[in-house]
Amino acid sequence: MRDHLIVHNGGGASGRLAVRQGPWTYIPPGGNRRPGAGPKGKQTAGSQGPVETSSGELYNLAADLSEATNVAREHPDVVARLRELLKRDQEAGRSRP
Question: Rounded distance, CA 30 to CA 32, Å?
Fold first, then answer.
C-alpha cells in the first residue's frame, strides 16, 4: 500500500500533477494557477497575495481545506519530501507499486 497519491490538479490539459500525503498537498511551480488564487484558480477571501513561490505550493488540508494559504515557505522540509515523491513517480511513469 502506498502512503501518497498523485492527483491531476486544475482543469483540462492545462492542469498539472500534484502529490497528496497525509494532510499535505504539494503542487510544483508552473501551470495555470494565478497570483491570489485559491483552489482551481478561484479567488478566495483568505488569499494572502501570490499563492505560488519558486518552491511551488504547499497546503495543509487539516488546517486549510480550501487551499487558500500556501505554507511552502514555512515547511521547506515537507516541500522537499513531496517534490521528491512526485519526481520519483513521474520518472517511473506510474505511481502504483
Answer: 7
Report how far residue 34's alpha carbon sits from residue 41's, in angstroms, rounded to the nearest whole number. 6
Task: Give CA–CA dist 24/56, Å, rounded.
Answer: 13
pLDDT digits (tens, 9 = 90+) for 69-78: 999 999 999 9
- 62 vs 59: CA distance, rounded Å: 9
Question: Per residue in 44-94, pLDDT tens?
Answer: 444 454 445 688 999 999 999 999 999 999 999 999 999 999 888 878 776
Distance CA 27, CA 58 (A): 6
> Is 90 exposed, middle or buried, given 0-12, 13-18 or 19+ CB atoms closer than 10 A?
middle
- E strand spans, 1-97: 5-9, 16-21, 24-27, 57-60
